[in-house]
Amino acid sequence: MIDIEQGEALLAYLRAAEHIAVDETPVFHNLAGGVSNRTVLVERADGSAWVMKQALEKLRVKVDWFSSPERIHREAAGLRWMQKAVPDYSPPLVFEDEQEHLLAMMAVPQPHINWKTQLLQGVVEQVYVEQFGWLLGTIQRLALEIPETRTLFADRSFFESLRLEPYYSYSAEQVPESAAFINGLIADTRQRDLTLVHGDYSPKNVLIYDSRLVLLDYEVIHWGDPAFDLGFSLTHLLSKAHALPEQRAEFAGAARVYWVSYWAEVRDLAFAADVEGYAVRHTLACLLARVAGRSPLEYLDAEQRAHQQVIVLKLMADVPVTVDELVERFIQKL
Known about the structure:
By secondary structure, the chain is α+β, with helices and mostly antiparallel strands. Helices cover 50% and strands 13% of the residues.
């Protein structure tokens, strides 16, 4: 298997596979930031650009964390689905290689900014928060309307190896006081077979381009519990409220706006009746996982991680009923 981060090997591969002409020499830039893939920007002579991704079997974290590189083909399926459902909010797939476990997608044009980067600069723009909620609700609603979606994404093995085990099960082992809460949530999540779940719905996987959000990273996409995406994403807004005290009120407001925007899209769907309660539970589990799991948030220091753990354990013992209540009580305890 080639290593796409090695420029000479990548050039030879692209020419041999006839993805580029034999006399073309693109410019390659290895991209940093991800733990689960090799990622390379390919700038072509005609001015176009691709982003190539190749899944790693052992993820780039301090503790051992493994997942089959075949998950890159789940990402390719997710990209194709998004082009059918909401094409303006995801990059088009260029090609997929099942032997080398890699893909290429069109690069999002410049200028763009990663939303996580902007948020950590303390810039919280309500229009993007609203769009973030609208997009998640729209994806979950359209998944119920596109007939083949459930069958296409029925397999949950990558969700197990990349989310339930490293985030939930590992955290329950590291923090035994949380085990009953988390293990109960794991059991419930495995039974909830309701709509499409992105599985990595986070500001780090969003670029802002031309005043809209472009959603990336579909390797964990599956049919399952819609509340997981809510909990996973609310965790990022609340953890940034923790990390950036001067913008704490803005992030708390953003969490509430996000929920309202999402709810407007799903309130009439069959799964909406209990999605808020499950979203609260997933948020608590993810808030703990991002300080005690295999992939802790890099922008919280050791003292902040310990403090967040204490707060979450108190909330797990007396679970908030609504997202608003969760936000209020979490912020009060910071």
